[in-house]
Design brief:
The protein is mostly helical and about 140 residues long. The protein is built from six helices and three strands; from the N terminus they run αβαααβαβα. The chain has a three-stranded parallel sheet, with helices on both faces.
């Protein structure tokens, strides 16, 4: 990252929405998601010399969480994504990291332009709702 111009390297806020590929990662990758996401937040803050940069995480929300098997990769990753924003689980992130549950924003294929469960069936409303919720969470962190 050292090659980036100074203006690009400034980190006043960060949002993380790595949803599609992450939710399909199996086994050990899913089990280490919380640890890895925590480390990512720490490394970005170190790199940008912004120890308290606000960080918002949008969860995986495919099928609105319907049909996820207990212990599945999707459920495991959702739990990890919610955990990083929980000050009881990560007190060092209290007031600076928030998690946004995107499951309520899922729209089924009948309300979407295509039947393609990854990328939320290409439903623009879902993406707008996720972005709005992330923006609101960021505003709350910045207050």
């Amino acid at each position: 990252m050292a090659a980036l111009p100074r203006a690009v390297r400034r980190a006043d806020l960060v949002s993380w929405s790595r949803i599609s590929t992450s939710s399909r990662q199996a086994g050990a990758h899913a089990l280490r998601y919380e640890q890895n996401l925590t480390r990512l937040i720490e490394l970005l803050r170190e790199e940008f010399k912004a120890p308290n940069a606000p960080f918002v995480v949008a969860t995986c929300g495919f099928n609105g969480g319907e049909g996820w098997q207990p212990g599945s990769s999707a459920q495991t990753i959702w739990n990890a994504q919610m955990a990083v924003g929980d000050p009881r689980k990560h007190p060092k992130f209290a007031g600076t990291v928030a998690s946004v549950d995107t499951r309520p924003f899922y729209r089924p294929p009948a309300q979407s332009p295509r039947n393609q469960s990854f990328h939320y069936h290409g439903n623009a409303e879902t993406y707008m709702l996720v972005g709005e919720a992330m923006g609101k969470a960021m505003v709350e962190l910045k207050q």
